[in-house]
Amino acid sequence: MFWQTELAPSSGPSLDDLLNAENVNLDDIIFNELTIQEIRNGHEKLANYLTSPNVISELVLGALKPRIDTSLPEKEQYKRAHQCAEILSLNNEQLSVAMLTSNESKSLLLNFLEDDNINNLIASFYMKIISQLLSKCTDQVS
Q1: 83 SS3 class
Q2: Cβ atoms of residues 65 and 102 within 8 Å
């Protein structure tokens, strides 16, 4: 990336290093400080990874049905869900199409409102994702 230089060392491995690893960990990608920016910049390898069927389903599941660790402070409990929702609601056609072509993620999105355990925060994540899908892929949503 343009701003990364030897003068300002990164806080961890680069995004390309993470994507080139044998066992890519989705959480490492989600919490990388450059992920959202690189999606916006059209990082092809990152887009290919995030749009694979099992990863896109895990992102939707992470945003809408998060695993909550109540031992963490409340602010930290929804951090992963927030990151997943941020990634899924970016103005990126590849991610939108991947959500709509994956049967598992489409099922999660369509059946979300039937869940009795919806809280306001998770509902806002859902609204953000659905709004993006409606604005980006209107013909595929209807």
Answers
A1: helix
A2: no
Nearest in space to 82 (alpha carbons), one of 62, 67, 100, 102: 62
Residue 50: CB atoms within 10 A of its CB come to: 25
Exposure string of 81-90, with b = 16+ CB inside 10 Å and e = fewer, is bbbbbbbbbb
Query: What is the pTM assigned to this prediction?
Result: 0.86
Domain locations in the chain as residue ranges: 20-141
Euclidean distance between CA atoms 22 and 30, whole angstroms: 17
Lookup: tokens for 34: 């450059």
Q: Could you read off the pLDDT of 76-88 as tens digits, one per residue?
A: 999 999 999 999 9
Q: Is 84 helix (H, G, I), strand (E, B) or coil?
A: helix
